[in-house]
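Dear colleagues,

I hope this message finds you well. In preparation for our joint manuscript, I am sending the Protease HtpX homolog (Knoellia flava) sequence together with its predicted structure, so that both groups work from identical material. I would be grateful if you could confirm receipt.
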Amino acid sequence: MHNHFNGLKTAGLFGAIFGLLLALGWAASVYFGNSSFIWIFALIGVAMTFYSYWNSDKLAIKAMHAFPVSEAEAPAMYRIVRELSTKAGQPMPRLYVSPTEAPNAFATGRNPQNAAVCCTQGILQLLDERELRGVLGHELMHVYNRDILTGSVAAAIAGVISSVGQMLSFSAMFGGGNRDNDNPGGAIAGLAMAFLAPIAAMFIQLAISRTREYDADEDGATLTGDPLALASALAKLEAGVSRAPLAPTKDLVNASHMMIANPFRAQDISRLMATHPPMADRIARLQGMATGYRPN
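The corresponding structure tokens are as follows:
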């Protein structure tokens, strides 16, 4: 069990985002006078979740222009990942390298049998082997904890909510909807939901991502048996990203939640809009693991 109740937090956040989807379905049902919308949106949510989950191994790899590497090309990566995956009793994932100087790493794939782990050239140059082992342990735990599924579901549902909210908003602006509705209060509430639900869904999706990072830190440090190695790596990554940030293109923004460190400049995002917890908090928790003290 995670000492910071991250699993419980994630379950609560998922309940909230699915509740938003159903509430938006209700809003559309009220606005258009057709109760079938709530079921249509539920089905759309399931379909989008399945599609995103099945194709999750392609998104970040494509966004980072990563290419597969052999053991001869990346011996340290292979040695570390083979050791840790064997220790965890899991299959060896595919290994990739991204040709960018920005230091980062990510794992992707719908399950341990179809997983991939990628390091950028920048992180391979920045970290020593002990720190790299801490990072790769973190990434492997994202796979073993099914965090790719978690992130795909959250992103898909948030996307559906955003699209439906925009549809309702445009319909209202251009005079759509049920003009003969006998419940004007419900229609107003539904329209308010159409504007507010996408914003709320985005914040919930980001909160889920931050919670899963804490879990991967803790579980990865347990797998490697060396929380201070990951803490040292995170400190270097924070400095490295500030020196070589990536431009927040659409593809990279969509894939950034998979990376161990937010790849963008700190001033490009607020704390509420971040896909990752503050590095100082993550480092403090890892240092607490090493000393037996767990900060709240």
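For the figure legend, we might mention the following. DSSP finds eleven helices and four strands in the chain. The chain has one domain: 1-176+184-296.

With kind regards,
E.M.
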